[in-house]
Amino acid sequence: AQSVTQLDSQVPVFEEAPVELRCNYSSSVSVYLFWYVQYPNQGLQLLLKYLSGSTLVKGINGFEAEFNKSQTSFHLRKPSVHISDTAEYFCAVSDPRTGGFKTIFGAGTRLFVKA
Amino acid sequence: DAGVTQSPTHLIKTRGQQVTLRCSPKSGHDTVSWYQQALGQGPQFIFQYYEEEERQRGNFPDRFSGHQFPNYSSELNVNALWLGDSALYLCASSQIYASGLLYEQYFGPGTRLTVT
């Protein structure tokens, strides 16, 4: 069975500083990987996805993530954060063998950007 | 282009009652999935509908059922509500490509269900 572990429940960071949100997954097969962002009282918005190919994936709002198969990780990074990046971030995985239907989410990391 | 829409926005029910939540997918999408997000947790997959049939199901009891209509919209029904069913219920739509694979999902704003 697949699972996702987000290693930090909360990450405080000052504005304009770099940030890394860590995600490890467990799967014996190839996977699709995703990062979503959720602002208060809203649904989830897709930041970026890894399906295949280049291990460095660029997404919206200046975020990027690197797929590391040997370490089964998919960490999210941003070189300089803004106050508006304060939100909950979810790492997720799905199984292409089953068509990618079922997506498994991590518990989330709350990013808090301080002025 | 309207995104995924859900109704109602908020709902309060009493234990033992039944509830129906509704979802309209993004234009051009033919697949709808439902997720339950308890407070402080990540979303958990309930089930997915494609071509009006349930295709995959997560670890949820039969009290949770659904339906997809010919226009691709969907309903989630929960019977015999428990206090533990209080959560944000998210609908996500997607498109099945010619490869038979689903790549990414677009989420609606959710329905906040409170069971008292």
Describe this structure in words.
- The complex is a heterodimer of chains A (115) and B (116).
- Chain A is built from no helices and 12 strands.
- The mean pLDDT of chain A is 92.
- Chain A is globular and about 45 Å long.
- Chain A has 115 residues and is mainly beta.
- In chain A, strand 7 (56-58) and strand 8 form a beta hairpin.
- In chain A, strands 2, 5, 6, 10, 11 and 12 form a 6-stranded mixed beta sheet that branches. A 4-stranded antiparallel beta sheet of chain A has the order 3-9-8-7, with no helix packed on it.
- With 116 residues, chain B is mainly beta.
- Chain B has strands at residues 5-7, 10-13, 19-24, 31-37, 44-50, 53-57, 64-68, 74-78, 87-94, 106-107, 111-115.
- In chain B, the strands form 2 sheets. In chain B, strands 2, 4, 5, 6, 9, 10 and 11 form a 7-stranded mixed beta sheet that branches. A 4-stranded antiparallel beta sheet of chain B has the order 1-3-8-7, with no helix packed on it.
- In chain B, a hairpin with a 2-residue loop joins strand 5 (44-50) and strand 6.
- Chain B is globular, with a radius of gyration of 14 Å.
- The interface between A and B is medium-sized, with 27 and 29 residues.
Largest interface: A-B, 27 and 29 residues
What percent strand of chain A? over 45%
What's the gyration radius of chain B in Å? 14 Å
Task: State the end-to-end CA separation of chain A.
Answer: 41 Å
Number of helices of chain B: 0
What kind of sheet is the major sheet of chain A?
6 strands, mixed
Apparent shape of chain A: globular
Point out poorly predicted stretches of chain B: none
User: What is the overall number of helices of chain A?
Assistant: 0
Ends apart, CA distance between termini of chain B: 37 Å
Please write the string of helix (H) and strand (E) elements of chain B: EEEEEEEEEEE
Largest sheet descriptor of chain B:
7 strands, mixed
Counted beta strands of chain A:
12
Helix content of chain B: under 10%
Shape summary of chain B: globular
SSE sequence of chain A, one letter per element? EEEEEEEEEEEE
Number of strands of chain B: 11
Strand-residue fraction of chain B?
A: over 45%
For the residues shown, what is the average pLDDT of chain B? Answer: 92
Helix share, percent of chain A: under 10%
